[in-house]
Amino acid sequence: MANADQMKALLKSHIDGDEQHFYSVAMQIAAQEARNGHERLAEELRSLVDIAKRSRIKNKTIPIARPNGELANILSVSYPQTRLADMVLADSLLAQMVRIIREQKFAARILEHGLSPRRKLLLVGPPGTGKTFSASVLAGELGLPLFQVRLDGLITKFMGETAAKLRQIFDATENVRGVYFFDEFDAIGSQRGLPNDVGEIRRVLNSFLQMLEQDSSSSLIIAATNHPEILDHALFRRFDDVLKYELPSSDHVVGLLKARLINYAAQGITWKHLAELAVGMSHAELTRAAHEVIKDSLISNQDTITELDVKRTILERKEIAKHLEQIG
Questions:
Q1: 173: which of 10, 98, 219, 321 fits an S-S bond (Cβ 3.0–4.6 Å)?
Q2: What's the pLDDT at 68?
Q3: Residues 232-259: pLDDT tens digits?
C-alpha cells in the first residue's frame, strides 16, 4: 500500500489543487502495487485515475471567451454554475425565467418557423432583489459565459468614445455567444430631455437603441436597473421581455431562509416568525444574514443553528441597512 510520504503527497496536492501531481502520485502507487504482485489493485487504481481525468475534462468549463484588447477594459467574464433551483422567486417571475430558458434551449426550432426566442431582457426592481443573480442563473442554465459590462470602462468624457465602445460590445455579441449584462443601466438609458441631460448621453442612448434593435446575434442581452421610472420610454419596446423584481413576501422569505439554512438548522425553528421579522429585507440581505449565521456557527463549533441565532443576525442586518439608509 501507499507509504507515508505518498499519502502526504496525495493530501498536499489535493489541498493545493495540483491535479497533475495528484494523478502522478496515484500512478506511482499503482506501479508500486504492481511490483508487489498486486496486479488487480494496480489495475483498479490506474482505471480510477483514467476515469477521474475523463470526468474532469468533461465537467471543466473551458474559458473559450476571454476579452482582450480594448474589450478587456469594458467586459469582465465569468462562468457561473448557478441554476434556477438556487433561486427563490415569485411564481410569475419564475414562469418568465423558465420560459426564457426553454425558448433558448429550443431556439433552433423556433427560428426554423421564422420566430425569435426571447433574448433581450430588461430587469427592473429594488437593489438586492436578484437581478444580477438572475443573469448568472441564465448563463449557468444555458452553459454560456457571463460578460458584465464595466460602466467605468464604458462611459468616458470624450465625445463619441462611449458610443464606439458600445459598438465593440455589440460586435462581441455576434462573435462570441454569451450573456451580456448591463447593470445600473439607467446610467446610459435615462430619459432624453431630463434636466441633467447632456448631448453626449443622448447620443449614447440613441446609439444603444439603434444597436439593440439591429442586433441579430444569438447572445442574450440583459439590462438591469433600480430606477425604471427614469428610463427612456423608447427602451421598453426594444426589449423582448421585462422582468419585474420585488422585495420577497413572507412566504418567499421562508423559502429563502430554508434553502440557505435547512442543512444546519436545529429542529423546531418557527420559520414564519423569522419571516415576519425579516419583512422588508431584500434577497441579498437575507442571503447575507444566512451566511453570517452559518459562519458564526462554524467558528463557534456549533452542531446546529438555533432560531435565536437567526433572529439575532436578522436584527443585526436590519440595523446595518437602516444605518446605511440614514447615511445615504
A1: 219
A2: 66
A3: 777 888 899 999 999 888 888 898 888 8
Q: With CA atoms as reference, report the closest residue to 46 among 35, 59, 33.
A: 33
225/242 Cα distance (integer angstroms): 11
Full-model pTM: 0.69
Q: What is the DSSP letter of 130?
A: S
Q: Single out the residue of 224, 241, 226 nearest to residue 182, CA to CA.
A: 224
To the question of domain 250-327 being in CATH 3.60.21.10, the answer is no
Could you tell me the strand order of the sheet in which 75-78 lies? 75-78, 146-149, 179-182, 220-225, 120-124, 241-244
Q: At what angle do helices 131-142 and 91-105 cross, to 10 degrees?
A: 30
Cβ distance 256 to 248 under 8 Å? Answer: yes
- Say how many Å lie between the first and final Cα of the chain, rounded: 64
From 88-92, 118-122, 146-150, 157-161, the region with the lowest mean pLDDT: 157-161
CATH class label, 69-244: alpha beta
